[in-house]
Fold 3-oxoadipate enol-lactonase.
Amino acid sequence: MKNYEVKTIDVSTGETLAYRTTETPGPIVLLLHGNMSSSVHFQPLMERLEKNYNVFALDLVGFGDSTYNRTLNTLRDFSEDVQSFITTLELSDLTVIGWSTGGGIALEAAAALPDRIRQVFLLNSVGLKGFKMYKKGPDFQPILSERIYKREDIVKDPVQVLPVLQAYETGNKDLIKQIWNSTIYNLNQPEEEDYAQFIDAVMKQRNLVDVDVALTQFNITHEHNGVVEGNGLIDQIKAPIIVIHGEKDMIVPVGEAKETKRLFGDQAELHIVKEAGHSIITDDIEQLSRLIENELEN
């Protein structure tokens, strides 16, 4: 895996964002990573795209080498840093590719900056009605009739949250690797050297609970999502949407991608990658980069 130099920039939210860039000529592509990751995870894709595009990959606030000076409660909060990054660097006519949580942040940014963002790719993205988290029973199984979305409940979650927080605190990389192997790299694993870099990047996260709170309360539709009413922000997104989703995704089921396509209608197109899970970059980077380049050329 090619490693790109880390640069930093101060943005209007009072944060300092770390980012990597190919510094190559061509249309601008901005990559936004998901939960438990950073711009490091995008380096294989950057290498594929740099021949024809000028690619930027951010560390979102509280991830990687970016600062974490304030509590974030919504994906809109996360997108404010992204918006400031775009305007500070005077980026325009750009394509934003958001993976997982980054997809929701990309949509928030597209709604806020319609004159700068020309299209959005949603890569195994959170759905438009957010991410469902459930209360766990004594057997640690989810109680499907009891959703959780408040910070005080999420921070106590004994399955999805507490073990990860403890692993971060104690530097338990083995547990983090186990989580990735069972849920994200369930089909294919990266090469050992790359994998070590990815896990090191994951360990830098400081905002896990913020992200979970933001994901459970995200809802840009006109419908109720079971915990919060939709805010209708979908109407403010004017850019074409390209949805790319791994059929075997264990984090965000492929049904979410189909629902996103339904809600956006003709504004969106949907590509399902058959032999891929939550990390298409790992499972089928050939098809992913081909899909992206075909769309960017059109």
In short: The radius of gyration is 18 Å.
